[in-house]
From TrEMBL:
It comes from Portunus trituberculatus. Disulfide bonds join C422-C434, C429-C447, C441-C456. Residues 36-241 form the Pentraxin (PTX) domain. PROSITE patterns: LDLRA_1, LDLRA_2, NEUROTR_ION_CHANNEL. Its main location: membrane. Keywords: Disulfide bond, Membrane, Signal. The gene is NPTX1_0. Residues 1-23 form the signal peptide. This is Neuronal pentraxin-1.
Length: 678
């Protein structure tokens, strides 16, 4: 196997140096391509460097704030593909660990693992992506391209005397490797700064512009140790910052006419910026784009064509700025502007020709996406896309089957479609604003039209669902009983009162749940449809008990994103019926040995809307809690009866021992005193 060895000149970083450490042009970064081998243990492919050795002369103290950035290009994902691991000892083997994975995205800092549920869908294979991890005394921040998440908590400073490993996880310091943890793809640009970079600096990094601050460790100054006995590490030159690479900006001409500020607001909603050219090459690209579509973009107020850019120009003071008023000094406005006008908004026409026009004019405009943007059309019925994609010109009609009064009636109506750049984990508001799906139906308005809090049902029932029949027979059920009070013993009627909570857990595979939060959520349906739920009576009660019921569901699993929120299969998410019961219970009191008597009483709960063998009680069913000391009795035991097969009854057994001292003081002693006094 051919091993390509790269000799890198190491520049010693001195903490007191006045000039920035060597930071080569990102377009010149070496790119390492890594492939996993077939071996185990220490033979897997990885790159390692000891910060203690690399920074030995600088000897920096632990960093209270820091930023660690790099670029990666994943070609495949294994079960636990690890992009970067930083350890300081065998015990502190997960000081920093980054695992960007389309199935599960995790970040570990100081051994504390965090799963980021909204990030897996942002991981794109075979595409350069930038990742930055920032730490400060109040928490850490992760940037994946322009997607940001923040964790607030007091965190420890970062010691810089450990080992950085690219392409593997460290189970011990620089060791303990397995193939399943290997990263497969390309890596470049790892840089460490001894401070938390600002948003503007991070956006510069995304554009392959090195932030204007002194880095502590720079990619081109690192001597890596390559471990690739069975895998492969090769060196490439084409990286994210090459011409046409990931950092090269893309431009889109919008031919729908808008005023300049209106266009800026619209673009911001869909994840674009109104374009502010960075250099002459971008101006040339924008000019060609506008020129190719000139028949769509006439100027109207004069001959010619053009489109809004995000620029303002004062011809009297020769000062240019963006629409936010920030100075733009790198463009030669005076050379390009073709008219003298009190108007300040800049229009790109052909070549180097710019015109100043009134910003309220309705015109084409040019935008540039912030990162990767995909427009998605949602809402098409599955029937339309089963045979072929409905591209081209078609007549559209929506049909919906409804069952009313046992007759099938066919209705035609309006089909709601959404077109936006919102990702699968986001909800599209009416104005195309994107909000997190997890914020839909969370009792807070996130859309300006409040549409994210409309239609917040939690149970979606299929056509023909029958609420009078259990989901299956016998139905596996877990029963949990909490006995709260046992009072009002009446020896004449041989009754007493029991207050308890009965919880029954089961699965209904016919139901699809939606809009579930972290806690239990009440089950609601469209059009007051009903879900099957157990109806319970107390069999050995002389009077109907007082009962209050609530049906809820507990989210389990991550769910599947849909246009209206996350959905969860009923076969994986438990329904729970909570019944608060107050019942008078019959008990055959045996008083022969009164007041030293023991009583065995029971409470029989019967589920009436299943057959006698309709329930299969889980062996974990039981009594969660029960009072132990009553006014007249001690509760010796409180348990559920064990059913050997399918049943429809749940029996609570109570073994009571009379408190004879209570009766001595309340009955016998007062009677004896009366006799003595008499």
């Amino acid at each position: 196997m051919l091993l390509v060895v790269v000799v890198v000149v190491v520049v010693v970083l001195v903490a007191s140096m006045d000039t920035p450490a060597h930071a080569a042009d990102p377009a010149q970064w070496a790119v390492f391509k890594m492939e996993a081998g077939d071996g185990d243990g220490d033979t897997d492919t990885r790159l390692t460097v000891s910060l203690k050795e690399s920074l030995s002369h600088a000897a920096p103290a632990p960093l209270a704030s820091f930023t660690l950035c790099m670029w990666y290009y994943a070609t495949a994902f294994l079960d636990a593909s690890t992009l970067l691991s930083y350890a300081t000892s065998n015990q502190m083997d997960d000081v920093i660990r980054l695992r960007p994975n389309p199935d599960e995205f995790t970040v570990t800092y100081m051994q504390d693992i965090h799963r980021l549920p909204d990030f897996p869908s942002l991981v794109v294979p075979e595409r350069w992506q930038s990742i930055c991890f920032l730490g400060d005394p109040e928490g850490w921040t992760l940037w994946l391209e322009e997607n940001v998440t923040r964790y607030e908590a007091a965190i420890s400073p970062l010691a810089v005397d450990g080992v950085v490993v690219l392409g593997q996880e460290q189970d011990i310091l620089d060791g303990g490797y397995t193939k399943d943890q290997s990263f497969q793809g390309k890596l470049t640009g790892l840089t460490l700064w001894p401070l938390a970079l600002s948003t503007a600096q991070l956006l510069n990094w995304l554009s392959c512009i090195m932030p204007d601050t002194v880095p502590l460790l720079v990619w081109d100054d690192i001597t890596w140790t390559a471990h690739n006995k069975t895998g492969d590490i090769t060196v490439h030159e084409e990286g994210p910052c090459d011409e046409g690479g990931a950092a090269a900006r893309k431009f889109l001409l919008f031919t729908s006419k808008m005023a300049a500020l209106e266009a800026k607001q619209f673009l911001n909603i869909i994840g674009f910026d109104i374009v502010v050219p960075r250099d002459d090459k971008e101006i040339e690209t924008i000019s060609e784009l506008v020129g190719e579509n000139q028949h769509h973009c006439p100027l109207k107020v004069k001959d010619g064509f053009g489109a809004w850019m995000g620029l303002l120009y004062n011809s009297q003071s020769d000062e240019g700025s963006n629409l936010a008023g920030e100075r733009v000094d790198w463009l030669n406005f005076k050379k390009r502007v073709r008219n003298i006008s009190p108007n300040r908004n800049v229009v790109q026409s052909s070549g180097d020709d710019w015109f100043l026009l009134k910003g309220g004019l309705q015109m084409c405009f040019v935008g540039t996406p912030r990162g990767r943007r995909v427009f998605r059309l949602r809402g098409l019925p599955p029937k339309l896309t089963e045979d072929k994609l409905p591209v081209g010109r078609h007549k559209w009609m929506a049909e919906q089957q409804e069952q009313e009064q046992q007759q099938q009636q066919q209705h035609t109506g309006v089909m709601k479609l959404s077109l936006s750049t919102c990702a699968d984990h986001q909800y599209t508001c009416s104005d195309a604003t994107c909000v997190q799906l997890s914020k839909v139906c969370d009792f807070e308005f996130d859309c300006s039209d409040q549409s994210d809090e409309v239609g917040c049902t939690t149970a979606l029932l299929p056509q023909g669902y029958l609420h009078s029949y259990p989901p299956s027979v016998p139905l596996p059920v877990l029963a949990a009983v909490t006995v709260k009070r046992i009072v009002n013993f009446d020896l004449l009627s041989m009754t007493f009162q029991v207050n308890l909570d009965l919880k029954l857990y089961w699965m209904d595979s016919w139901i699809t749940f939606s809009n579930l939060g972290e806690d239990y959520k009440k089950v609601t349906t469209d059009d007051d449809k009903q879900v099957w739920r157990p109806e319970v009576i107390v069999q050995n009660s002389p009077t109907p008990p007082y009962t209050v019921s609530e049906l809820s569901v507990k989210r389990q699993g991550r769910g599947r994103p849909t246009e209206r929120g996350y959905t969860f299969p009923g076969a994986e998410n438990q329904l729970v019926e909570t019944k608060t019961i107050k019942a008078i219970v019959n008990c055959d009191f045996r008083l022969r040995w009164y007041p030293w008597d023991d009583q065995l009483c029971f409470l029989t709960l019967v589920v009436t809307n299943v057959r006698e063998s309709g329930l299969l009680l889980n062996q974990s069913s039981g009594v969660l809690s029960c009072p132990t000391l009553l006014e007249e009795y001690k509760v010796a035991s409180c348990a559920l009866g064990k059913e050997e097969g399918p049943t429809n009854t749940i029996t609570v057994y109570l073994k009571l021992s009379r408190r004879y001292e209570y009766h001595l003081f309340t009955t016998f002693l007062p009677t004896s005193l009366l006799l003595i006094l008499g």
